[in-house]
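Q: Could you predict the 3D structure of Biotin carboxylase N-terminal domain-containing protein?
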Amino acid sequence: MSIAAKLPSILIANRGEIACRVIRTARRLGLRTIAVYSDADAQALFVEMADEAYRIGPAPARESYLDADKILAVAKHSGAACIHPGYGFLSENVEFAEACAAAGIVFVGPPASAISAMGLKDAAKALVEKANVPVVPGYHGAEQGVDFLAKEAERIGYPVLIKAVAGGGGKGMKKVDRPEDFADALSSAQREGKNAFGDARVLVEKYVLSPRHVEIQVFGDSHGNVVHLYERDCSLQRRHQKVIEEAPAPGMTPEVRAAMGKAATEAAKAVGYVGAGTVEFIADGRDGLRADRFYFMEMNTRLQVEHPVTEAITGLDLVELQLKVAAGEPLGFTQDDVRAEGHAVEARLYAEDPEKGFLPSTGKLWALQFPQSEDIRIDTGVEAGDSVTPYYDPMIAKVIAHGRTRDEALDHLAFALGETIVAGPRTNLAFLKKLAEAEGFRKGPFDTGFIDRNISALGAEPQPLDAAAVAAAALQLEEERQVAVLDLAVERTGDEAKSPWLDADAFSIMPRPALGLPLLVDGERIEARIEWNGDDARVSLPGHPLDEGEHEVTLARAEGGTYLALHRGRQTAVALFDPFSVDLDAAAGAGGVIKAPMHGKLIALFVTAGEAVVKGQRLAIVEAMKMEHVLTAPRDGTVTELGAEPGAQVAEGAKVVVLGE
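A: Sure. Here are the predicted structure tokens for Biotin carboxylase N-terminal domain-containing protein:
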């Protein structure tokens, strides 16, 4: 009997890229697909793709995608036979899995008991220790007082890692190097854990030196079979969030793979695991990967974001396997049947600005284009014309490349990133390409600190003005201005307009005078100079040298007459300068206006009006996409104005604090 005969319909309790991913496989297998969406996603791609779609609430996740009762009501109304939770949101929620079972709806995931056993990092570590799986030294107990935990950190020895017990995706995780920083880091980790997972409890463990993040993909069925599908290396991280993942892990040996695979499958068997899961290990990489130097971190009881690299090397469809197991069928293969071919890498393309500390970026996607190649796979949940909103994870796409060797796969990835076009929100596209090409990453050794150590070389800091991008946009704007002048002449005279650079008899061409073109470039006033030699134009930007040679710049038209100039993965916004659009608040503040870097919630304000502050002092914390962003004083001064109260929603660019002299 086919999967579709046993599970004829599926509700995807998620959104975006993973919802599209599940729908594609479910449709291929003949299942009726049902989507749920918030107001922010009413026109989203996954809603369009599904056979049916139902609204479940406003944009905030707590009122939509995290509302289990609403999702279950839709499942009952639509006659869904099963629910796929994707990742994030309710995917590892024990109560939701139990509610599905109580309603007679198959939960496409492990049993609630397994989620419960592995859902909290402290309990999971205690459980796997009994199965002889090595764990990182640390404190995993119930006592949560700041003084007690600070003493435990001293006992463990700095640096330490504070981690939310219910955490994931880097949320609620803080590395602490000094005792004096512990209390603030603990408070921040607890807030993030509470906001993201509803649980403020943390654990404290030793920060492993030269850490490699290696995880094992496991799969179990309801017939007692558990296998692993090789490993993935996720060591390229920023703020404990994965950036590039690959399979197999560089430097992996058969001995270490066997040891890790055994530890992972034993951990899964210990909780009666069924379905797709990932056992994550931290390895001490100072002497390469060794069988006696890896430690259990956590088990993710769901499908991982990076699962496509495993699919690329094994040829398996993990979503299909999930549905097969959920339908009660055996896996149909043993550990000896699992083979890996070639190498695969995945890069997470995000709407974020590496030049501004990777702050999330939002807005309309004015252009979106990916390369087409048999070696490249694109998993995305958006298309041109959609918007990246401040309510959810800012992922635009996953770019996956496969090759016969690691170098070939990385070459394919770098090429794909170079051919990708995104206009609208700022992205990490140029950063990812440099990372894929980085010699230190390709030749190793590398660890989870690689990005932080090479942040400047990777371009993740303020960059000089992209003169080539500005020049291309300036020429386009001037051409449009000339067309507008000619159109106006036609309108006024009723005659076919002539070029103003032809003489009255049209027998000779008058030289075109050089032109000064006032521009607004990423908010900065710049004067471009355009000179002509016949029909050829040359642009110069005083103070910003323009390299000679060809420059492949893509221009995307945005609102308000602005062009988004895309060059080597970076984006520059260029418009004709309008003297009436000057930001008077910023000008009046003379650099003392501290604005919200993104749309979010002001969760803490540490200063009052009239208070003297020093450069670098914490002023406020803005929470966006479940992560905290600290605003600090750019210079010494006195607080003259507060633009918002704690608890208020603030828009990107909104005034938070004003400093006087």
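Q: Anything worth pointing out?
A: The mean pLDDT is 90.
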